[in-house]
Specification:
Layout (H helix, E strand, L loop, with lengths): L1 H25 L4 E7 L4 H19 L8 E7 L4 H13 L5 E4 L3 H14 L3 E3 L5 H6 L6 E3 L4 H18 L7 E7 L2 H16 L3 E7 L10 H10 L3 E5 L2 H13 L6 E4 L18 E4 L10 H14 L7 H19 L4 H9 L2 E3 L5 E3 L15 E6 L2 E6 L9 E2 L14 E2 L9
Parallel strand pairs: 1-2, 1-3, 3-4, 4-5, 6-7, 6-8, 8-9, 9-10
Antiparallel strand pairs: 10-13, 11-12, 13-14, 15-16
């Protein structure tokens, strides 16, 4: 009897021992990535879906460092206080290993005190205001994946110089800029003033309260723009401003020769509106150029397959890039050690689905800046046509912007003829 009891206890101890040996392998903690995005906005929707797609692909290949990757997405609702609270939760409650995401500059500004407090390695794909760059000077744990406002302005100047060479009928003596009153809009206008002086044209600007921030009445700004009689009108705001801005421009009969929008995203139903005809816009990527590279097409096809939908903003492939850059750096580092991870991120050379290679370098102030170059696009017959750069162009500029009372008639604007390079 005693022998049976002894053997039973021995077997129990053996099995228990096996359990405790195996348990640590089975219960390896996941690598946690914390993302902050405005989920009700088109950018946040595309961004969160694309991040989830990237994590799914990574985990399907075995994860990172033999561990599963867990993505925790927090909604900032495009509100500063919500973003700050989300950051605190991700770091102190969820114990994330790295921070990603971001969109609105105003929200990002509110996150900076928390970022500096916790000093987590952060790879940020949003926030274009130069004020963010100034605030992050000397912070080597901060990596930025979006062009700053002044960088975008400089690229736009190159683009318009080449466009005016191709389409000599374009005039650019007077430009009016309507901009949302937050850091993104005001920073863009501030960056544009010296560029206008350097390139020989006048610029006048006026702020408006974005519909995304509780505004939505642009009549006063639009009337002032109409009185100014600009060759080009540009507005910088958010997707919620796009349709009401056009509706109110039509209401007061404002149809400048070139009408440009510069939001980070367009409303999902914007393509269905007849008001979109002839609107020029700046973007880093669009489905219209998904064939620019194999990686771009692969991302777009995978997104469509996963969600039975297409990404509507460049924040889709940018957010995907955000996760993949982090993943490659973790693999290079072989650890989550902060110093090793920073060094690994500095060695980034990622061929993005946006059609650009992301390599970190020093911008005006921060040490770790990489971005995709903006392109010029235009809505024509409810589809997007890429105008510039020439290497990815899919059509010609419609010029001038169609007058409201001539749309749908034989007098409506048509694609402008390009300058014959062979003629002197």
């Amino acid at each position: 009897m005693r022998i049976k009891v002894f053997i039973g206890l021995l077997l129990a101890a053996f099995v228990t021992g096996l359990f405790f040996v195996a348990a640590p392998v089975q219960a390896a903690e996941p690598i946690k990535i914390g993302a902050i995005l405005p989920l009700a906005d088109a950018t946040g929707k595309d961004g969160s879906r694309s991040m989830e797609l990237a994590v799914k692909e990574i985990n399907a290949k075995g994860g990172l460092l033999g561990r599963k990757v867990e993505l925790i997405v927090m909604d900032d609702e495009m509100k500063a206080e919500k973003g700050a609270a989300a950051l605190d939760k991700l770091v102190t409650v969820d114990n994330v290993d790295i921070l990603v995401g971001g969109m609105a500059s105003g929200v990002t500004m509110a996150l900076i005190p928390g970022m500096k407090k916790y000093e987590k390695v952060t790879v940020w794909c949003g926030g274009a205001s130069g004020r963010i760059e100034e605030a992050m000077e000397g912070k080597d744990w901060f990596f930025h994946l979006h062009s700053w406002d002044y960088q975008q302005g400089a690229i736009y100047e190159i683009g318009w110089a080449e466009m005016m060479q191709k389409y000599p009928q374009i005039k650019r003596k007077k430009v009016f800029m309507a901009y949302e009153e937050g850091p993104f809009g005001s920073g863009s206008y501030k960056a544009g003033v010296p560029l206008a002086a350097a390139n020989g044209y006048e610029i006048q600007g006026e702020a408006f309260k974005s519909a995304a921030m509780g505004g939505g009445d642009y009549r006063s700004v639009l009337r002032h723009a109409k009185e100014y009689k600009p060759d080009m009108f540009i507005w910088g705001g958010y997707d919620k401003d796009a349709l009401p801005m056009l509706e109110q421009a039509k209401e007061i009969g404002f149809a400048p020769p070139v009408y440009i929008g510069a939001p980070p995203a367009w409303p999902v139903d914007f393509a269905k509106s007849p008001l979109n005809e002839g609107v020029v816009f700046y973007s880093m990527w669009n489905e219209a150029i998904k064939n620019v590279s194999k990686k771009s097409k692969a991302y777009s096809d995978a997104f469509n397959k996963e969600y039975k939908d297409a990404p509507t903003t460049y924040f889709g492939p940018l957010a995907y890039t955000n996760i993949m850059i982090v993943a490659e750096a973790i693999e290079r580092a072989g650890t989550l050690n902060k110093d090793a991870l920073i060094k690994a991120l500095e060695a980034t050379s990622y061929d993005s689905p946006m059609g650009d290679r992301f390599v970190f370098g020093k911008s005006k102030i921060i040490n770790h800046q990489a971005f995709a170059s903006p392109k010029f696009m235009q809505w024509q017959k409810s589809k997007v046509v890429v105008l510039w750069p020439a290497a990815v162009a899919t059509g010609k500029l419609m010029y001038p912007f169609p007058a409201w009372d001539k749309r749908g008639t034989k007098h409506a604007a048509k694609a402008a003829p390009a300058k014959d390079a062979k003629k002197k």
